[in-house]
Amino acid sequence: MEKQIVFRGGTGQAKMLRESLQDKIKLTAIFEQNKDIKSPFNDVDIYYGDDGFNNWYSKFFVENETYFSVAIGGNCGKDRIVIHHELMSYGLKPFSIIDKSAYIAGNCSLGDGCQILPQSAVCTEVELGIQTIINTGATVDHECKLGNGVHICPGAHLAGLVIVEDCVTIYTGAVILPRIRIGEGAIIGAGAVVIKDVKPYTLVVGNPAKEVKKVK
Questions:
Q1: Residues 116, 131: Cα–Cα separation, whole Å
Q2: What is the pLDDT of residue 86?
Q3: What single string gives the DSSP state of each residue in 55-69?
Q4: Distance CA 90, CA 53 (A)
Q5: Which one is predicted more confidently, 88 or 2?
Q6: Most CB atoms closer than 10 Å: which of 129, 130, 138, 177?
Q7: How far is C-alpha 111 from the geometric centre of its chain's CA atoms?
Q8: Beta 193-194 vs 187-188: how paired, if at all?
Q9: Which pLDDT tens digit goes with each residue over 3-45?
Q10: 98-207 to CATH, choices 2.40.50.100, 2.30.30.280, 2.160.10.10, 3.20.20.140
Q11: Using 50, 70 and 90 to split pLDDT, how confident is the model at 55?
């Protein structure tokens, strides 16, 4: 039987991920909590809430042949991790989606369920945790270590030897200088230039980046 993949999330991230899938695996279903969201694809059904998932699961789940991707971007790393483990508990398998135009060095370590999107680069000896997104045109230079649920947004750039802890979001166009450590749950604002370590659960913005507030 042909391998199938399902998406959790049916908005813009789902559109990007399907494009990057090419013909590697067949997208067969989307799961959403928000009933106002319609399927972005005419040929793929969308299922709402727990009842929708259970209905799909009873009819279409195939053990060892059903994969998933958490198609949720933004500052939702913790949500991606929770959904990752929940879907695995039902027997679905995480699938890392890598666009054909992305560059990934041969000695990188990629966690399960990563998303490496168009024109991005993951360079030598980089380590990525589970459910980490390297979005369009983003670059992660040599020997960076990224935790679980990290999102490097479009056009953001990490220099070498940067450490990014779990559930950090680095927004569009931000630049992180070498050997910086970004604490868990921190948010780096769009266009920020980070020249020193960032404390956990803080928002930093500007050039040079400065802390403006704590975040949950």
A1: 10
A2: 98
A3: HHHHHH--TTTEEEE
A4: 11
A5: 88
A6: 138
A7: 11
A8: unpaired
A9: 899 999 999 999 999 999 977 799 999 999 999 999 999 999 9
A10: 2.160.10.10
A11: very high
Q: Is the peptide bond before 208 cis (omega within 30 degrees of 0)?
A: yes
158-208: per-residue pLDDT in tens? 999 999 999 999 999 999 999 999 999 999 999 999 999 999 999 999 999
Q: Known catalytic residues?
A: 142
147 labelled ligand-binding: no
Q: What angle do CA 11, 14, 16 make, to 5 degrees?
A: 115
Question: What's the order of all strands across the beta sheet hosting 163-164?
Answer: 109-110, 127-128, 145-146, 163-164, 181-182
**CATH number of the 4-95 domain:** 3.40.50.20
Residue 114 has pLDDT above 80, yes or no: yes
For residue 44, what is the DSSP state?
A: S
For 52, list phi and psi in degrees, rounded to 5: -65, -45
189 among annotated binding-site residues: no
Beta bridge partners of 74: none
Domain residue limits, the chain: 4-95, 98-207
